[in-house]
């Protein structure tokens, strides 16, 4: 497990990170969410050791990370930094070799990744000849080719079309399933909602929410319900203690007094459905930041 504890960092007088703590668990995809400038990239750079913290620790498998025991990170930076003139396959293989991977493994890993990322047909093209979305896939291959212990990806899904998102997702899930902790930032909440096991939300340099997707949903669920009956549901507003949030013919969304509403509904006729309303990640995000 990768453990971040009490990380702080300032730039001049500006405190950008204030006691940031969270875990990235092996075998799980952890989404790192926050508004622009909330401190995601700064946190990732400190985790990677390319930027110093002014307080706090990063630990890997229970031991504080230092120059001697840094795990092998696969990093996809926000500023994509590959060579535009170099051919795709040569570039990925070369990056693997830079990480100390032997020639044969480097070639094999490169070809497997290009296949998984549906780039085999572009392997001999220069990077600059590819569309931006395909260049993005090459960046992902570059982060993964040396079989890193931990994956840290800054906005890996930005600029990808929905099919490309699925392709990249499959590749990342495969790594997570093999036991690699995967931390990635994203502004695309719908994607995070669908694919993340764990979610960390940062706001103005502080952790605003943190936990498994289900834990967060349950924690922020409140006392909200949806009922669908046969006839008009307007009577729900007369049930004592109830606050109506939405009313649309036979459907009502309301807060509080669920048992009273259900009883009153059954007295009147058939109940088509009655469910607690679980908040979306989008709603949780807006609530906590
Ligand atoms: N090298 C630096 N010098 C001064 N300020 C910096 C530096 N790096 C980051 N900052 C400031 O730290 C804050 C957090 O920036 P950071 O890049 O970590 O945010 P982010 O959450 O990754 O944002 P985005 O979603 O826009 O990528 C911002 O106010 C930024 O201006």
TrEMBL record:
Transmembrane segments: none annotated. The keyword ATP-binding applies. Belongs to the ABC transporter superfamily. PROSITE patterns: ABC_TRANSPORTER_1 (PS00211), ABC_TRANSPORTER_2 (PS50893). One of its GO terms (cellular component) is plasma membrane. GO terms for biological process: response to antibiotic. GO terms for molecular function: ATP binding; ATP hydrolysis activity. It is found in: Cell membrane. It holds the Pfam family ABC_tran. SMART domains: AAA. This is ABC-2 type transport system ATP-binding protein. SUPFAM superfamilies: P-loop containing nucleoside triphosphate hydrolases. Keywords: Antibiotic resistance, ATP-binding, Nucleotide-binding, Transport. The keyword ATP-binding applies. Its main location: membrane. Residues 2-229 form the ABC transporter domain. It is a peripheral membrane protein. It comes from the Bacteria.
């Amino acid at each position: 497990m990768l453990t971040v504890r009490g990380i702080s960092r300032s730039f001049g007088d500006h405190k950008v990170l204030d006691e940031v703590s969270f875990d990235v668990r092996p075998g799980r995809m952890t989404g790192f969410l926050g508004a622009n400038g909330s401190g995601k990239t700064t946190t990732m750079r400190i985790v990677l050791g390319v930027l110093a913290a002014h307080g706090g620790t990063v630990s890997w498998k229970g031991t504080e990370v230092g120059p001697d025991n840094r795990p092998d990170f696969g990093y996809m930076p926000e500023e994509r930094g590959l060579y535009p003139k170099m051919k795709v396959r040569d570039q990925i293989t070369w990056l693997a070799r830079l990480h100390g991977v032997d020639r044969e493994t480097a070639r094999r890993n490169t070809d497997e990744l290009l296949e998984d990322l549906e780039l085999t047909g572009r392997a001999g093209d220069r990077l600059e000849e590819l569309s931006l979305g395909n260049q993005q896939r090459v960046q992902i291959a570059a982060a993964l080719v040396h079989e890193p212990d931990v994956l840290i990806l800054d906005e890996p899904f930005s600029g990808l079309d929905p099919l490309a998102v699925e392709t990249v997702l499959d590749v990342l899930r495969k790594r997570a399933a093999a036991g690699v902790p995967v931390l990635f930032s994203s502004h695309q909440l719908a994607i995070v909602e669908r694919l993340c096991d764990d979610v960390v939300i940062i706001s103005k340099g502080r952790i605003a929410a943190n936990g498994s997707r289900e834990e967060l949903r349950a924690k922020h669920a409140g006392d909200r319900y949806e009922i669908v009956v046969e006839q008009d549901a307007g009577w729900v507003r007369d049930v004592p203690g109830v606050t109506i949030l939405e009313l649309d013919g036979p459907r009502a969304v309301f807060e509080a007094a669920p048992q009273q509403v259900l009883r009153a509904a059954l007295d009147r006729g058939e109940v088509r459905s009655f469910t607690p309303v679980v908040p979306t990640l989008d709603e949780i995000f807006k609530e906590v930041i």
